[in-house]
Structures are given as structure tokens and as C-alpha cells.
Amino acid sequence: MQTADRMIALAIVAMSAYFMYYAWELPIGWNGETGGPGAGAFPFWLSLIMAFAALGVLLRSLRQERQLTRFFSDRALRPIIAVTLALTVTIFLMPLAGAYIALPLFMLWYLKIFGRHGWILTGILAVATPVFLFFFFEVTLKILLPKGFTEPWFIPLYAKFF
Amino acid sequence: MEIFALLGDGFATSLSPINLMIVLLGVTAGLFIGAMPGLGSVNGVAIVLPLTFIVPPSSAIILLAAIYYGAMYGGAISSVLLGIPGASTAVATTFDGRPMAQKGQAGLALMAAATASFVGGTISVILFTIFAVPLADLALAFGPAEEFALVLLAFTTFVGLGGDDILKTIIMICLGLVLSTVGLDLISGQPRLIFFDQPGFYSGISFLVLAIGVYGIGEVLFTIETSQKGQTVTAARLTFGEMAAGLKTMVRLWKTMSVGSFLGFFVGMLPAAGATPASLMAYGIAKSTSKEPETFGKGNIEGVAAPETANNAASTGSLLPMLTLGIPGSPTTALLLGGMVMWGLVPGPMLFIEQPDFVWGLISSLYTANFAAVVINIALIPLFVWALRMPFTVLCTLVLVLCIVGGFAPSQKMHDVWLILGFGVVGYLLRKADYPLAPLVLALVLGPLMEKSFRQTLISEQGNILAFVERPLSGLFITIAVVFFFLPIVKGLTRRFNFLKLVFSKQQ
To answer: Half-sphere exposure of residue B287, counting CA atoms within 13 Å on the CB side?
Structure first.
């Protein structure tokens, strides 16, 4: 817990520095005679405050006595990494293979393998959800979801509903 | 009375068939979302917001407000039936709601929660109606200096009253404000903080992306960690006889419920406080003023009524500053504010002048939502018992899919979907390390207003930074903000002082 706390505080300091580096390219001080603060002023000075606050968290943690509580329990870490990875793969697949392949695959993995549900429940949800999404977003709201290489398969559907 | 005429016109809007349907739909959805352990009003509103493109903007806001309302009612359901709060706002309801369920009075506890919510909701909506116009009139006199001071005040309440780690709160406020500056600068037109030269950052970071990430994906990750297997859902049955007896008991609790309503309403207005502390405070007051405080925590119906009136009253209370001043009183209302801005309905005093139909339609819809919620809540109790048996994994899958698609739909860019995943994971880690997330979301929503008003004031006052304290109203806000900011330090000093006095007196 302590180590994680320090690492997060350090990461915030680094992030603030990174923000400040970007804001530095813009005027961070006074902008001309009556121009008010420049475009970079707000992000720059706030990042500086953030960096100092994070340093405060870090110093406070270093002054504390050693604690041996774990940030992640062993039981929790694995499923969380698994779900995060699955989400990453799904989002990566979406523009390539389309939402209508990526999302059912994700649901298949989540329900059947991760959640250990039966085929019937998995099948119903993995089919019904994309159908609902298609009618809700594409047909009603006219918001096209990414299709990737599956685009041609949808042309007959477009012809029917648009 | 002018208010009655305005409210009457409002009912003409909110009782139109489409809006009535929307209220019923929103309340029912909210009840289910609130009842699901882990999901509360803020998660519900974040996940559902992209779906509301399907109705016109004014109806969309009514829908979201109804979800907010329903979720406040629904939170009690899993507190009673599962013993875990359906939302953090319903924590105090578990104290006595769960023991009641274990004694076989689950139905009674649910009915008490619903009735108490109704009382809290009704009293607070009436207070809302009374205060809305004067507050909006006051806000009409606000210039940029006052706006800045008010936003500053909103943030300092987190430092002074939030109860979270102060340094971590400051970090989250700054982070939210810095993230709000990403994109094109409104005043100079320069692009700012375009990370890795990604073109997606030119349009800024939408509040929706942060909210879906933090409250959707982050929440699911949190639920995966905390969910334990083998929870038992207590069956709840309610006969008409019990219902009549329950109502009779509730009537005797009118004092507890009115205290809870007023307390909840005013605490709810503060951005940092809101429904959770309000309900805990109401519980504490009910216990300490009770003739038999030892029965609290063992299934006293008063212990269910007090927090439930307060958390519903607080949800209405937090709408008041959002609608009249443009300063949200809670993360959920911050999302409502973001949604309204997205649809071109900018909250604040001008809204009362330019869009009276919408404002009063929304206010009157709170009355109908409140009424609908209590009826649907009691009628659907068996359905909630069934729905709570739904495995976490099914719920999580659906929420995650909705997060991905809902994150893509508004901007139709994969860039935003990646950001959602990033915010989800980072938000989850930060939450685990005790960083408060509410100030982050609020800061991202209020950031543009804060920066704009700050720079506008300085430009119009030729750089005179004292302009913020010279104007009476903004000076007052800044003074209160300074007091809030130094409150924790003063508290710490007095504690140390008392300690010294104690040591000293012992030595003598």
C-alpha cells in the first residue's frame, strides 16, 4: 500500500512536469499590456500546484513508519488484469473487425470463460446485445459504429433500414 | 403567486404524454440501477447519457433527472436485501435496514425506505421551488468575477468539508482543471496540451469520456475486486396489512423525517458534502435524539427512515445550485450540467429567463418523478428481489459494452474509447489509493467556466487581481472560500492546542 502510494505520487509529479512542459510552449505569464494571463498560464500554474501537492503526499508517506498492507490482494489482481487486457483487445479490434465482431467476442469471453456461465445465457446475450445496438444506434440514432472489414456485410441491411 | 403560475405551466410540459413516459422510464431504470450493488446514480447517469440522444434535449434532461431520482430510491433496496449498499448514498440504510431484513421484516424496511424517500423528496422539491427563483435572481447580478469566486468556493468546500485527504483532494482538483484546458484555448485560439500530437485532443477531453471511464469502467473494476460470491438475497414479502401498519408507524416518525429532509436539502447543496454525509448525519441525529438509542443498529425502523429522507432530499438539494447558479452540488449533477451544456441549455440564471418552459418543466417533473418512484418502488419489490439474483458478471458485461459503445457514439472517434479505458484504469487505481474522484469530475466540468471567468475579469479590470475581492459579492465568496480552505488547518491546530492543554493540566 505504501509503495503503491509513493509510486502514484511520483507518477503524478512526473505527469505534472509533462503538463508543464506542454504549457511552457504557450505564454504562461502576462499576455501583453491588458491581455490577461496567457493561454498556458492556467495549466502551467495548476500543474505546479499539483506537483507540490504530490510531493507532499510522497514526503508524508516517506516519514510514516513502514506498513505491510498490500495494495492488491492476490485474488483481485488476476481478474482485473484479465478484464483490462480483454477490453484493450476489444477496443483494438473494433476499427479492424468492426463492433459487431469485437463486442460479441468480448461478451463470449467475459460470460463463458471469465464468468463461467452456460452456453444458453452467453449465446442469448452475445446475440441480443449487438442486435439491440444496431437498432438503437444505427437505425434510430443514425450513429454508425465502426465496421472494419465487415462493412460490405452490412450493405443489404443499410438498404433495408435507411 | 407567480411561482404557482410558473409551476402550473411546468406541469403542462411535464405531464405531456411523452414526458410522463420518460419520467416513468427513467424512474424505473434508476430504481434498477440504484438497486444494483456498486451502481449508483452517478454511474447510471454516466452510462445512460449517450443513450439519451434518442429524445429531444429537454426531455433527455428530464430522463436523467428521473434516473437520478430513481437511483436514490433504489439504493435502499440492496442495502436491505443484500446488506451491501446499492450506492454509497445508501450506506446508512444498511445499519438498520439489514437487521430488519434478518428479522423477517425486509418488506417493511423497503416500504419504510420508499415512504421516507418520498417524504424527503417532496419536502425538498417544495424547498427547491421556493428557493429557485430568488437564487436565480441573485445570480443575475453575477459577473465573471463572481462566477470565478463561486467556482473557487465550490472547490474549497472539498478541501474544508470533503473529509478526504486534503493533499489528494487538491491534486484531483488541479488534475481536473488542467485536463479541462486540453484543446483549443477559447480566448487566444491557441491549441494547448495536444499530447503526443494526437489530433483527437484538439477537441478537448469531454466530461462524458472521463465520467464513463471513471464511473463506468473504473466502477466495474472496483466491483470485480470487491464482489464476493455467495451473497444471499433476503426474500421480501409485503401484505396489505403490514403496509397499513407500516404507514402508521411512519406517520409517527414525522419529526425524524422532517429533520432529515431539511438537513439533506441544505447539506446536499454543498458540492463536497451531498447525499452520503447527509444521510449519515440524519442517522446520527435520529439516534441521539431517540428515546431508545440502543435499539438503533438492531432493526429500528427510524434508522431506515432518517437516512432515506436525507439522501433523497440531498439529491434535490444538489440540483438547486446546478440549475440556478451553474455550479453542480454533486458529481451526478455535474454530469447533468455537462449534458445540458452539450445540448445548448446552459444552466444558470439566464436559463430561467430564456427557457422558462424547460426549467419549470424540469422542476415539475421532479414532483411527478417522486410520486412515480414511490409507487413503482413498492409495486416492483418482488421484481427487485429477482433482479438482485442476477450474477455480477452479467451486469458487468453489459455495463462494459455500454461504456465502449456509449463512449464512441457522441464523438464517433476511437480516440475517445481509448481515453475511456485509460481513465477507467487510472481512476480505479487512484480510487484504491484514496484519491477522491468527485472533485476530479467536477473540476473537469467547471474548468472552462473557471478559466474563462478568471481571465475575463483580469482583462476587463486591466490586470487588477484585487478585483476579485473588491466587488462585494465576489469578495464575500472569496472570504468564505478562504475560510473553507484553512478550515482543516485550524481544526488541526485546535486539536493540537487541546492536546497541549491536556498535557499541561496533567502536569499541574
So the answer is: 19
Per-residue confidence band for A92, with pLDDT thresholds at 50, 70 and 90 = very high
Contact B311, B281 (CB under 8 A): no
Residues near A119 by Cβ (< 8 Å), separated by ≥ 6?
A112
Q: Is 80 exceeded by the pLDDT of residue B229?
A: no
For the stretch B311-352, pLDDT in tens is: 899 988 998 988 888 888 888 888 898 888 888 888 888 888
Contact B111, B384 (CB under 8 A): no
* Facing residue for B181 by CB, picked from A12, A42, A53: A42
In a 13 Å sphere around the CA of B65, the CA atoms on its Cβ side amount to 34
**CA B451 to CA B148: how far, in whole Å?**
8
For cell 472569496, the residue is: B478
Three-state secondary-structure class, residue B184: strand
CB contact (8 A) between residue B397 and residue A111 = yes
Share of chain A above pLDDT 70, in %: 94
Torsion sign (Cα): B94, B100, B102, B106: negative
Q: Select the residue from A5, A34, A46 to test the B interface by mutation, using most B Cβ atoms within 10 A.
A: A46
Residues 428-457 of B with CB under 8 A from A: 428-430, 432-433, 435, 451, 454-456
Neighbours of B103 (CB within 10 A): 12
Domain boundaries, chain A: 1-71, 75-162
Backbone angles phi, psi at B185, to 5 degrees: -70, 130
Is residue A103 within 8 A of residue B404, CB to CB? The reply is: yes
Residues B313 and B260: beta-carbon distance below 8 Å: yes
Over residues B346-369, the mean pLDDT reads 87
Contact across the interface for B393 and A22, Cβ inside 8 Å: no
Determine the Cα angle at B358 with ends B354 and B359, to 5°. 80
Share of chain A above pLDDT 90, in %: 16
Whether chain A has a CB inside 8 Å of the CB on B174: the answer is: yes
pLDDT band at residue B124 using 50, 70 and 90 as cut-offs: very high
Q: Is A135 on the interface with B (CB under 8 A)?
A: no
Average pLDDT over residues B1-24: 84
Q: Which of B195, B224, B394 sits opposite A80 (nearest CB)?
A: B224
Reported as a single tens digit per residue, the pLDDT across B201-216 is 888 888 888 988 988 8
Q: Is the pLDDT of residue B83 over 90?
A: no
Residue type, B366: L
Distance CA A126, CA A159 (A): 25
Is residue B408 within 8 A of residue B414, CB to CB? The reply is: yes
Classify burial at B180, counting beta carbons within 10 Å of its beta carbon; exposed 0-12, middle 13-18, buried 19 or more. buried
The C-alpha cell that represents B81 in the structure block: 436485501
Residue B200 to residues B177, B411, B416, Cα–Cα distance (Å): 19, 10, 8
Label residue A86 by pLDDT band (50, 70, 90): very high
Q: Which of A85-89, B426-430, B497-501 has the lowest mean pLDDT?
A: B497-501
Handedness of CA B25, B31, B32, B34 (dihedral sign): positive
Q: Report the C-alpha gap between B487 and B399 in whole angstroms.
A: 40
Min CA distance, A156 vs chain B (Å)? 23
pLDDT, residue A70, reads 73
Which DSSP helix (H) or strand (E) runs through A147? none
Separation between Cα atoms, residue B281 and residue B429, nearest integer Å:
29
Query: Residue B338 and residue B393: Cα distance in Å, rounded?
Result: 30
